[in-house]
Design a protein that fits this description.
Elements lengths: L1 H38 L3 E5 L2 E6 L8 H18 L7 E5 L3 E6 L2 E7 H4 L6 H21 L3 H45 L5 H4 L7 H25 L7 H54 L13 H20 L9 H17 L1 H16 L7 E4 L2 E8 L3 E6 L4 E5 H5 L3 E3 L9 E10 L4 H14 L10 E7 L3 E10 L5 H19 L30 H10 L3
Antiparallel strand pairs: 1-2, 3-4, 4-5, 6-7, 6-10, 7-8, 8-9, 11-13, 12-13
Helix pairs in contact: 5-7, 8-9, 13-14
Length: about 550
């Protein structure tokens, strides 16, 4: 047991002696290095004539001279951009060196060997170095001359003026180009053999000018993207604006471009479906135009059906195209997209009940053809001329020049009179009634009514007017005059003229038109007929007095 304890003590003593010897060697090596560094000439960091701090040692493969050059370049680059010295310096301490940053920009690295000759801790020395840099930066900013600012402002204004000139030249170029393209497109459309006539969209807008506008705005955006960094590069406080702005839009643009790149295969499929649907619609539009012009005739298919039928088929074609396209839309499989689709469907179905009813009624009216645009009709209590007919409503201009909009569902649910249906062939019958006392022979009344009809203009002479004896009342007979006319749009004027002629004819003949409540019993009162129209309009008493006195 004693031998074992002696053996343990021996090995422990030997191990401690080795450690002490090793530490002594390390201290000697460090002391020798410090002595060597003390003897070596330092390399000073000089900025704008100010000596900031020394460098003594290598850092990796870099000599003190190389390190000093790099640090000086960093300081000069940073000083040109600064307008104020902000407290944005940061120090990162490592095991045997420290890193100095300004807003994430690396300025320099300081090792233990660089500060060993100073006899102070590395962290304290690095803080002193940073303070000397701040002081030098402040002096540099304060000593910037007004000349530099004026030069920068002048360069900015000159650059902005150059941008204005570029935009002016671009506008002039595209104005000239649009004029040439417009003339070229007109020449292409005039040529019957040109395929462009069938491919280009119809209408007053120029297809080439539309493409030219897209190119123009794309070019302007490209110029701005390339020119803005130059425009904002002269002023120190504006140098970071463009970079910051580009940073804000870079991620969304990358995301969008990446999404577009992945969407391209589906996009080609969608474009093919739309092109097929588009040219089906073009064929339908062409056939519809030929039917409306009566160049193409289909038995039993009226020309006024062409446009509404084309519109219905367009909706069906585009609906089928949308059904085929829907699975290829971005995010169509996502729950959010499906939820929005269901919400819109429910909203449409609940909010469009009356609209759907009017739409169905409009389709029924279209193919029933109860009236056409320009017809004189009576819908309910409204009389007028049809000025517009759509799938949802019908517009009528009344006799008082008022435009009344009637929903198609209301037209289906009420009675409708069309005065223009047979007007061109047979004409319509206008009728008016008069009441005459029993003392007047009916032959006389008939003659007077026919005379009034003959005096009325714009009546049809092919069909003779006729008279109906409608009723035999207590004190009078009701006669109805019926006349024909093809000018249904003048119905109101014709009624007015016909009634005026009836009144004149009866007054000239001395026949009274008795109202339904007029009492025909006489007690010596004068006749209601104007005296100037009847030669003997005196009452019986006056006649006796005149006979006695000898007056005529």
């Amino acid at each position: 047991m004693k031998k074992q304890l002696l053996l343990i003590v021996f090995f422990f003593s030997f191990f401690c002696i080795g450690i002490i010897a090793q530490n002594t060697d390390t201290v000697n090596i460090v002391t020798e290095n410090i002595s060597t560094l003390s003897e070596q000439e330092p390399v000073y960091i000089i900025f704008q004539g100010d000596t900031l701090f020394p460098l003594y040692a290598h850092f990796g493969p870099f000599t003190p001279e190389e390190r000093a050059g790099v640090i000086t370049d960093h300081l000069n680059s940073l000083a040109n951009e600064l307008t104020t010295v902000e407290d944005s310096f940061s120090i990162v301490d490592k095991f045997n060196y420290s890193l100095v940053f300004y807003k994430g920009f690396s300025l320099m690295s300081i090792s233990d060997e660089d500060v060993a000759p100073l006899g102070i801790p590395r962290t304290q020395a690095v803080k002193a170095y940073v303070e000397s840099i701040k002081t030098s930066f402040k002096k540099h900013i304060e000593h910037k001359s007004a000349k530099d600012w004026l030069i920068n402002i002048g360069l900015t204004i000159l650059t902005l003026f150059g941008l204005v000139i570029i935009f002016y030249l671009v506008n002039r170029l595209f104005k000239w180009l649009n004029h040439r393209l417009s003339q070229y497109e007109k020449n292409l459309k005039r040529k019957r053999t040109s395929l462009f006539r069938y491919l280009a969209p119809k209408g007053p807008d120029s297809f080439f000018i539309f493409l030219s506008s897209i190119v123009k705005y794309a070019l302007i955006i490209l110029i701005l993207v390339l020119y803005l960094p130059l425009l904002f590069s002269f002023m120190p406080w504006t140098k970071g604006i463009v970079e910051q702005f580009y940073g804000y839009i870079a991620d969304p643009v990358k995301f969008v471009l990446y999404g577009i790149w992945n969407f391209l295969p589906n996009l080609f499929f969608i474009i093919i479906i739309l092109l097929i649907a588009r040219y089906f619609v073009r064929i339908l539009s062409y056939a519809s135009g030929e039917i409306e012009k009566e160049k193409l005739k289909i038995k039993g298919f009226h020309k006024d059906w062409a446009k509404p039928t084309t519109n219905i088929l367009k909706v069906i074609i585009y609906a089928f195209a949308l059904v085929f396209i829907f699975p290829y839309l971005p995010g169509s499989d996502s729950p959010a997209f499906q939820g929005v689709s269901i919400f819109l469907g429910v909203l449409f179905s609940l909010g469009s009940t009356s609209a759907i009813a009017n739409l169905v009624a409009g389709i029924v009216i279209t193919y029933m053809r109860p009236f056409m645009i320009g017809d004189r009709v009576k819908i309910g209590t409204t009389i007028g001329t049809v000025v517009e007919k759509s799938m949802l409503v019908t517009k009528i201009r009344t006799l008082k020049n008022e435009v009344v909009t009637i929903p198609n569902a209301q037209i289906i649910n009420t009675h409708l009179l069309n005065y223009s249906n047979n007007a061109k062939e047979l004409g319509i019958i206008l009728y008016t009634s008069v009441t005459i006392g029993y003392d007047v022979p009916w032959q006389t009344v008939n003659d007077l009514l026919l005379k009034a009809a003959k005096k009325t203009k714009s009546l049809s002479r092919d069909n003779k007017p006729f008279i109906l004896h409608k009723s035999l009342n207590d004190f009078y007979v009701e006669y109805e005059l019926n006349v024909y006319t093809r000018q249904v749009n003048k119905m109101t004027l014709l009624y007015s003229e016909l009634n005026k002629n009836i009144l004149e004819s009866f007054n000239e003949a001395g026949v009274e038109i008795l109202s339904p409540h007029y009492n025909a019993l006489r007690d010596g009162n004068p006749s209601t007929i104007h005296s100037e129209e009847i030669p003997d309009a005196k009452n019986p008493v006056e006649k006796v007095i005149d006979k006695v006195t000898g007056k005529k």
